[in-house]
Amino acid sequence: MIDAIEAALGPIDVLVNSAGAAKRSPPDDLDADAWHAAMDAKFMSYIHPTDVVVKRMAERGRGAIVNVIGMGGKIASPVHLPGGAANAALALATVGLASAYAPKGVRVNGINPGLTMTSRVAEGLAAESRMTGLTADALLERARTRIPMGRLGTPEEVAQVALFLASERASYVTGAIVPMDGGAGAVC
User: Can you give the CATH number for the domain in which 156 is found?
Assistant: First the structure.
């Protein structure tokens, strides 16, 4: 795929990995297959293109990779255990690749969105509803009250941060994982 893209359009200067990720499930519904599926859906779907592209960027001495990861790798959720584990692995790979390839002119950064207005939120709420017996609406309202900004993020807001990290305006930023959770996980 990468060979075909570069043959048609030229070298890839920016790679943004943004996959849907693992299915959300209550812990009692998990098995080894669910854990493997999560790693394939999130971790490996990022690593496969990154492995090829980062090396080609390094040969040219420039490039930017942005991984949209997710807060599930930092904050454990009972309905997102396999996906959270994949996110944690991806965050480690992101900062490790940043360190390895910075001397070769390649920047690698990540974004950790919190709750964002997508169909994934509905899936997660449905899984949590099955586990807790609370309605999805009640769970969503409870989640909103935990966000200091009082709302969920939008895909467009995540895209703007990805655009910044991929741009020359972020030319001295590498190995960063930018939280985007409306202040819910504020740390220094």
Answer: 3.40.50.720
Residue 112 lies in a domain: yes
Q: How far apart are CA 108 and CA 106, in angstroms?
A: 7
pTM over 0.85: yes
Residue partners of 65: CB distance under 8 A and separation at least 6:
14, 15, 16, 17, 50, 53, 54, 57, 97, 106, 107, 108, 109
pLDDT digits (tens, 9 = 90+) for 106-141: 999 999 998 898 887 888 788 888 888 999 899 989
Domain range for 158 is 2-180
Write down the pLDDT at residue 25.
Answer: 79
Residue 141: what residue type? E
Contact in structure between 34 and 133 (CB atoms under 8 Å): no
**What is the SS3 string spanning the chain?**
CHHHHHHHHCCCCEEEECCCCCCCCCHHHCCHHHHHHHHHHHHHHHHHHHHHHHHHHHHHCCEEEEEECCHHHCCCCCCCHHHHHHHHHHHHHHHHHHHHHHHHCEEEEEEEECCECCHHHHHHHHHHHHHHCCCHHHHHHHHHHCCCCCCCECHHHHHHHHHHHHCHHHCCCCCCEEEECCCCCCCC
Q: Which two tokens stand for residue 91?
A: 């965050």
